[in-house]
């Protein structure tokens, strides 16, 4: 099991960071795992994941989906403890999520913990995939499960670290297919942090 603060964070600089979360129940703020996939300037990827104690009950549906239960997160940090270390690492980076769920979960967990909602630079790899592979619309869609099959990706779905890596790989493949950078595809880049901070 991997917990902050024992596990070191990847070393930058990075082009972008993909982020994925898993939750314990239907409450978006009940984060039980956070995964990161950090893509370097050379295209290399470093991954990181930590379990989070959501301090809430685990729903059987979520545990069946993720394999994470109360025993899995025993001894893990609560969200506020982990976020103190992760937020400075993420600020100023382009953060990729696959759908809008992860941003909403981070915001909900922050509010529950009495922390400010973080002002991060988010982009959505679902939207990126729609631009790169419009033929999947109505033909399997752009969820990770279908993209795994259609693009030949190899990952364990519903593990936050694995899903973050998959989202990062989707972006890299989309860049190659469209012959554009993620900044060009999304119109989002790290320099936007300055305007977010104002």
Automatic annotation (TrEMBL):
GO terms for biological process: DNA metabolic process. One of its GO terms (molecular function) is 3'-5' exonuclease activity. Gene3D superfamilies: Ribonuclease H-like superfamily/Ribonuclease H (3.30.420.10). GO terms for cellular component: cytosol. Residues 15-180 form the Exonuclease domain. It comes from the Bacteria. Coiled coil: none annotated. InterPro entries: Ribonucl_H (IPR013520), RNaseH-like_sf (IPR012337), RNaseH_sf (IPR036397). PANTHER family: DNA POLYMERASE III SUBUNIT EPSILON, EXONUCLEASE. This is Exonuclease domain-containing protein. The lineage of its organism: Bacteria, Pseudomonadati, Pseudomonadota, Alphaproteobacteria, Rhodobacterales. The gene is dinG.
């Amino acid at each position: 099991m991997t917990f902050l603060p024992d596990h070191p964070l990847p070393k930058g600089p990075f082009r972008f960071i993909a982020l994925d979360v898993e939750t314990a129940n239907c409450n978006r703020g009940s984060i039980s795992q956070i995964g990161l996939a950090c893509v370097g300037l050379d295209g290399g990827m470093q991954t990181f994941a930590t379990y989070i104690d959501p301090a809430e009950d685990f729903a059987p549906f979520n545990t069946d989906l993720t394999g994470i239960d109360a025993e899995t997160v025993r001894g893990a940090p609560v969200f506020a403890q982990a976020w103190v270390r992760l937020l400075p690492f993420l600020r100023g980076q382009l953060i990729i999520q696959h759908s809008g769920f992860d941003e909403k979960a981070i915001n909900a967990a922050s509010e529950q913990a009495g922390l400010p909602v973080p002002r991060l630079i988010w982009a959505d790899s679902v939207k990126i995939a729609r631009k790169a592979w419009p033929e999947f619309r109505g033909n399997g869609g752009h969820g990770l499960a279908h993209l795994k099959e259609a693009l030949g990706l190899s990952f364990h779905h519903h593990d936050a670290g694995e899903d973050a890596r998959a989202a990062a790989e989707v972006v890299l493949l989309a860049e190659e297919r469209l012959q554009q950078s993620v900044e060009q595809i999304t119109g989002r880049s790290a320099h936007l942090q300055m305007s977010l901070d104002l």
